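Form 12-C: Joint structure prediction
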Amino acid sequence: MASPSPSERRLQKELSSLMKDPPPGVSVDANAVYQHLNLWNVHMKGADGTLYQGEDFQLQFRFSSKYPFDSPEVTFVGDNIPIHPHVYSNGHICLSILTDDWSPALSVQSVCLSIISMLSSCKEKASTLSIEKH
Amino acid sequence: MKVKIKSWVGVATWRWVANDDTCGICRLAFENCCPDCKLPGDDCPLVWGQCSHCYHMHCIMKWLNSQQVRQLCPMCRQEWKFKE
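Section 2 - Result
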């Protein structure tokens, strides 16, 4: 087997640290990730005491070969896309750390934590469309 | 009693004195080299920023070179300046 590339080595490390110490409500199918290290499906539960309590979401992380120098592409996928002012109905997430404010010191763990906190701080379920109407 | 030393073998260890064990960019141990290098040590040195954060030189250079607008420390987002 070819030796892993720099991005693959980092993703392997991230996978084991995410398995060991996942943010609350976050889980990942490690076997599936080992098959395709550049494409992760992460399960996320809506945090208790928030508008998303009891809901299950699926996030897809896509990593380029330049990761962590390039940010991962992170979108909600599956049949339950959270209704949130910063989440488009196609699953795209408007979050600065995923674009302009990306830093290679961030990780799958910290991105998951940011998304949980983005959802949890929401006061009213409103879609991006209704925000644009205001 | 007189002892005559016929031969001896010296063994030394070394480590970087850094405020962390692993590079925040590649997540590999500072005692190892960055993922692009084969040998740790002088060929793959550590560098410090004025903010006191430290990385493999090759890792931070790769990051800074990829930033067109502003060059910030990946950890604290302060403007990156090499520590003299």
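Section 3 - Comments
The longest helix of chain B spans residues 57-65. The domain at 1-84 of chain B is CATH 3.30.40.10 (Herpes Virus-1).
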